[in-house]
Structure formats: C-alpha cells, structure tokens
Design a protein that fits this description.
globular
Length: 261
C-alpha cells in the first residue's frame, strides 16, 4: 500500500534518489536565501525597519540549503544539477510570481508594492513549505539522520509563515488590503499548477531511479492530479487567508546557526 511515509522512506533509503531529493531542496532554499538578501538590501526607505526581518528570512533559507548539503555529505554524496522541470523557484518566476531576478540584480530601490508582492508570494510558498515539513516531521522526527534537520527546518518555516501573516495584515490595515488579496489569489492559483508540474517531474525522475513499475508510477501521478483538482476547486483558499499568528514578531531576533557534521 502506498503511503507518504513508505514513499519517502524508499527515496531516502536509496543514495541516488536521496541525492536528487536533497539537491532539489538545497537549490530551492539557497535561491530563496539570495532573493531575500537582495530584497532586504533594496527595501525602500519607508520599510527599512522591515529589512532585518527579510534578511533573517534569507539567512534561514541559506541555513536550510546548507543542512540539505550536509545531509548529502554525511552519506558521501555530491549534489546533482536540478532538472529544469523540477526547479520550483525558477518555474514560479517564469509564471510571473514574485519579484523577477532581473529586478533584484539591479540597484534601484524597491517600492512598497514590491514589498507587498514579496510578502504575498512568500505567504503562499511558505504555506506549502510549512505543510511539507509538518508531514516530514510527522514521519521522520525520530530518524537518527533526518530528525534534527526536519524539526529545525519545520520550526523555521512556521516562523516564516507567521511573519508573512503579521506583516501582510500590517499592510492591509495601512490600506493595501485589496492589492494584497488580488496578488495572493493570482499567486496561489499559479503556485498550485507549478507544484503539480514539479511534483510530476520529480516523481518521474524518482521512478526511473528506483525502477518503479508502471502501475505504481501511474497511481502516484493520479494522486498528484487529484491533489491539484482539490486545490483548484477551492483548496487554494487556505493559501490566501490572513490571520494574526500566535507567534508574534517571529523573525524579530537574530538568525539561528547550526552545523551538521
């Protein structure tokens, strides 16, 4: 019987599939670290007080990338190139979600709307990241190799999500509510399609590495399409709601550092 735990256990137990999984995760986290670092550097004068939180967000993402690379190194593995069709962050940018890398490579300060766009994009993608890490924490928190990493990253992702809720509500109270809801909806609908496509691509690569029979691969693909259908019919709405989080000022302190031997 297929289950999330058995599927991930199979991926983790094989060096080649584990290497691909960690390479994809590390690449996405490192890219997020760079993006947040540039956004912090280019924040408009009126939002300079937010810049340290954006920078901490980026530092956390960088840390996550180092953790995934360390997990590979511990098993004597080197990262592999991430297939274009499995590059979540690149595909989101191609769909016009978030701030373009061309914009972030420049020196022109961002506008307040740019900051709102960044926060709305992050609110959607951090929802996905938080849910994924909750699932991994549920099944692998006690794993001797993955447990510590999973719990640390999961806690950080929950902090990032809380931060996005709190800051977006601040902007909503300042008069940006309609803009925020419009951007959130556009981003959520694009993200669920990108997530479907990336999931299908990743499972295709994993299936070839692990030699999955056609019925198993077809069942997994059907499951991915079913998740997309649910999200397209209304599940996306969980990504656009805003509420004041229990974790207030979640990114108000210095970033945490960690070394994984």
């Amino acid at each position: 019987m297929l289950s999330a735990k058995s599927l991930f256990q199979e991926i983790i137990d094989n060096d080649e599939s584990f290497r691909l999984f960690c390479s994809i995760a590390a690449g996405g986290e490192s890219q997020g670290g760079w993006e947040n670092g540039r956004i912090a550097a280019l924040a408009p004068e009126s939002e300079r007080g937010l810049a340290p939180k954006i920078a901490r967000h980026g530092a956390d993402e960088d840390k996550h990338g180092r953790i995934f690379n360390a997990l590979m190194k511990k098993r004597g593995l080197e990262p592999v190139d991430v297939p274009d069709e499995a590059d979540y962050t690149m595909l989101l940018e191609k769909h016009g979600i978030g701030l373009s890398h061309e914009r972030l490579r420049g020196d022109e300060p961002l506008s307040v709307r740019d900051i709102v766009t960044y926060l709305a994009h992050s609110r959607v993608t951090e929802q996905r990241a938080s849910e994924q890490m909750v699932m991994l924490r549920k099944h692998f928190a006690d794993d001797p190799d993955l447990g510590r990493a999973v719990k640390m990253i999961s806690n950080d992702e929950d902090n990032h999500l809380a931060y996005c809720h709190e800051e977006l509500l601040r902007f909503a109270y300042a008069g940006h509510g309609r803009t925020i809801q419009s951007i959130l909806r556009e981003c959520a609908l694009a993200e669920i399609a990108v997530y479907r496509d990336v999931s299908l691509a990743v499972m295709d690569h994993m299936g070839r590495i692990l030699g999955w029979p056609k019925p198993k691969a077809a069942a997994l693909a059907a499951g991915i399409h079913a998740v997309y259908a649910y999200e397209r019919l209304g599940g996306w709405r969980r990504m656009v709601s805003l509420r004041m989080p229990e974790r207030r000022d979640a990114l108000g302190g210095p970033p945490t550092t960690v070394e994984f031997a």
